[in-house]
# Entry
Amino acid sequence: MANLKIQKLEKQIEKEISKIILTDVKDDIGFVTVTGVDLTSDLSFAKVYFTVLGNEEKKASVLKKLGNAKGFIKNTLGKRVQMRKMPELIFSIDESIEYGNKIEGIIKQIKEKENEDN
# Structure
């Protein structure tokens, strides 16, 4: 039962942080997609996963800007999501999409090589 409550909160926080970054953060962060939120069981920390198009330098820049805006995002989130205590936000680059694309590329190369051999 508690797990379902945490999952609902994670989705709600994910949705609201996406809106806050898109509409309320003044620093030009660029196009950021929030891909997920993991809350600790005691709700004290929320790891916010995001993706951004660009190279490693762009990702590092976005991570820094999100870190700078963390207080504002947490404060705004507190006004939109009903929780006794807002969790501490930890922003993390979601590498899973890039990893999936890399695996997909490897599989494609293997198939192409097999077709050449036949």
Q: What stands out?
A: Residues 34 and 96 are 13 Å apart (CA to CA). The radius of gyration is 18 Å. The chain is about 60% helix and 20% strand. Helices lie at 2-24, 56-68, 70-80, 96-117.
